[in-house]
Amino acid sequence: MAERYYIGSTNDLERRINEHNTRKGHWTSRFQPWEVIHFEEFDNRSKAAVKEKRLKSKYGIEEKLRIIKHRK
Fold first, then answer.
1. Which one of 51, 53, 64, 66 has the fewest CB atoms closer than 10 angstroms to its CB?
2. What range does the domain containing 67 cover?
3. What global pTM score does this model have?
4. What is the rounded distance in angstroms from the CA atom of residue 58 to the CA atom of residue 62?
């Protein structure tokens, strides 16, 4: 099975990863277990949203790959 990576934002990381690993019927629950390989903290929600949007864009692929490579 191919490796899958999820990018998202939350104000409670522990709760969110638990939801991804336990809830039935959601897209992420089909590919559990999920584990955190990287996280960043921001002063406010809008800064986090900008970073999330960049990582999900085609322009953020190099940064995503660096993060993934660093974890291995």
1. 66
2. 13-71
3. 0.75
4. 9
Helix ranges restricted to H, 1-72:
13-22, 45-56, 61-71
Number of domains in the chain: 1
- What tens digit of pLDDT does each residue of 19-29 get? 888 876 578 88
Measured distance CA(33)–CA(50) in Å, rounded: 27
Number of CB atoms found within 10 A of residue 25's CB = 6
Give which of 58, 47, 55 is closest to 8, Cα–Cα: 55
Q: Which amino acid is at 69?
A: K
- Which residue, chain included where needed, has tokens 């809830």? 23
Question: pLDDT tens digits for 42-52?
Answer: 999 999 999 99
Residue 20: how many other CB atoms lie within 10 Å: 19
Separation between Cα atoms, residue 72 and residue 59, nearest integer Å: 22
